Amino acid sequence: MADQLIRATAADGGIRAVGVITTRLTEEARQRHKLSYVATAALGRTMAAGLLMASSMKRPGSRVNVRVKGDGPLSGILVDAGLDGTVRGYVGNPSIELPPNAKGKLDVGGAVGKGFLYVVRDIGYGYPYSSTVELVSGEIGDDVAHYLVSSEQTPSALVLGVFVGANGVTAAGGLLVQVLPKAARDEALVATLESRVAALSGFTPLLQAGKTLPEIFTDLLGDMDLKIFPESQILRFHCGCSFDRMLGALKILGEAELQDMIVKDDGAEATCDFCGRVYQASSDQLAQLIVDLQTESSVSG
């Protein structure tokens, strides 16, 4: 099943639901970063959450930046997701592995530890909107739902899942259900929705059972005037890094540092944190950067 995002509404537009399947892009991230089991689950959940949050933005080019900064051995998570369906991300310690938690599942909470969740929404102009909340459990889903309620005042239920087997990621994705202001005063509706989401056995078991996103929506909201949008959006792991951008970053270091790289290393090598791609610049290319800096300095002077 292709990685995709599908939207729906229910309760006469009072409920907004978004579902994502992110199996392939999570597997790509696992391979790119050589992630352990628990690191794969942590990054996969956060990428799905980022895509779900970005889906509510309106302006083309809008993106959400999600940073999970905890005191656990994972050493943090950073994800960048766009309204266009692209996502990228990495963890601080990709090789960390922990024993299963008390429920026999991957101990993402233990890997993340205690700390904070930082969210930055960039709509493409003006100052990005940023907010910070304390981590509730480190399991990502609880933490993002807490952010949505406390920072955006939107009652939200979030289910995220990543199943990693011996052959890699076989199921990943998530479901976000939000009660919009027009229905938030209906306490019975909110309670019913909360109980139904809580009754879910998780998200990946549904995918492994062969359920599609429309079928998951129907099971959850089928008796609440459910309307599923016919358009599905393709999702993919994508990083906009390039050799030219790498050269631009090196240029910022200045003449002295560039000259030092030429003398000591006969060039430079840089690895993109987001996608793991390695770029190499020769000593001649570094020398050209120095010439460019000198030219710019003489012009501005």
UniProtKB/TrEMBL annotation:
Domain of life according to the entry: Bacteria
What Pfam families does UniProt report for this protein, alphabetically? HSP33
**Which GO terms of type biological process are on file?**
protein refolding
The disulfide bonds in this chain are: C239-C241, C272-C275
Q: What is its main location?
A: cytoplasm
What does UniProt say on post-translational modification here?
A: Under oxidizing conditions two disulfide bonds are formed involving the reactive cysteines. Under reducing conditions zinc is bound to the reactive cysteines and the protein is inactive.
A Gene Ontology molecular function term for this protein is: unfolded protein binding
Which range is the signal sequence, renumbered to this chain? Answer: none
Where is this gene product found? Cytoplasm
Q: Name one GO cellular component term.
A: cytoplasm
Task: Provide this UniProt record's keywords sorted from A to Z.
Answer: Chaperone, Cytoplasm, Disulfide bond, Redox-active center, Stress response, Zinc
The record's comment on protein family reads: Belongs to the HSP33 family.
**NCBIfam families to which the protein is assigned, alphabetical:** PRK00114.1 (NF001033)
Briefly state the protein's biological role. Answer: Redox regulated molecular chaperone. Protects both thermally unfolding and oxidatively damaged proteins from irreversible aggregation. Plays an important role in the bacterial defense system toward oxidative stress.
Descriptive protein name: 33 kDa chaperonin
Q: Which organism is it from?
A: Tolypothrix tenuis PCC 7101
